[in-house]
TrEMBL record:
Segments crossing the lipid bilayer: 26-50
Listed name of the protein: Cytochrome c oxidase subunit IIa
Superkingdom, natural source: Bacteria
Record's keyword terms, sorted: Membrane, Transmembrane, Transmembrane helix
Keyword Transmembrane helix tagged: yes
Length: 56
């Protein structure tokens, strides 16, 4: 890989700019996924456990 240093510098600057913005997409994806799992848990709780009543 013989890259021209003049061409690599702008690409490195682009990468540095992206990295400076941080992992906002990953954090958003994790938040959405967590919300979905919690929502499914509540649906399961209200649809399955509460209708059964107290187990004796």
């Amino acid at each position: 890989m013989n890259e021209d240093p003049k061409q690599a510098a702008p690409e490195d600057a682009k990468v540095d700019e992206i990295v400076k913005r941080g992992p906002s997409g990953a954090i958003a994806l994790a938040g959405i996924s967590t919300a979905i799992v919690i929502g499914i848990w509540f649906v399961f709780y209200f649809a399955v456990f509460l209708p059964r009543g107290v187990i004796q």
